[in-house]
Amino acid sequence: MTKKSNHSNDLPKSLGVVLADTYALAVKTHGCHWNVEGMNFSDLHALFDGQYTALFAAADVIAERIRALGQYAPNDMAQLLALSTLPESSSKPLTAKAMLADLVKAHETVVASIEAARAVATALEDAVTDDLLIQRRTEHDKTLWMLRAYLA
After folding, report:
1. How far apart are alpha carbons 67 and 85 in whole angstroms?
2. SS3 for 89?
3. What is the band of 8 on the pLDDT scale with cuts at 50, 70, 90?
4. Whole-number Å distance between alpha carbons of 31 and 48
5. How far is CA 98 from CA 3, 85, 146, in A?
6. Average model confidence (pLDDT) across the chain
7. Closest to 50 in 3D by CA, of 14, 83, 26
């Protein structure tokens, strides 16, 4: 049960950052899916497909949690870009290895925004939001393991 969430807009705001970072990462991963080349093309093309699909679905869950907390979710690119902590992608084509390294950094950034939001959820004793964020963290940890395995 959410005990103190009515006393603060900090949680929806921090979830907005997680949403923006998740959406930006989905777009970045989708771009990798479109543009990957090389010996591991088939494997990486399929890997990125699964990852961006999962990220778009996760964005929906995060946005719905913001709504459940009584706030409106960011709903246009300008809002999402303003909230996101992910750096812009390179405009020049990346090698498959550079894509993997870029995605590792991006997932680490999203994990940091998740942990910041978890701190707010914990302070507000919002176990539901904390559980959602733990689930998201678990997925990013798994994805990081997979991406790093390609770089080994």
Report:
1. 21
2. coil
3. confident
4. 9
5. 44, 20, 15
6. 94
7. 26
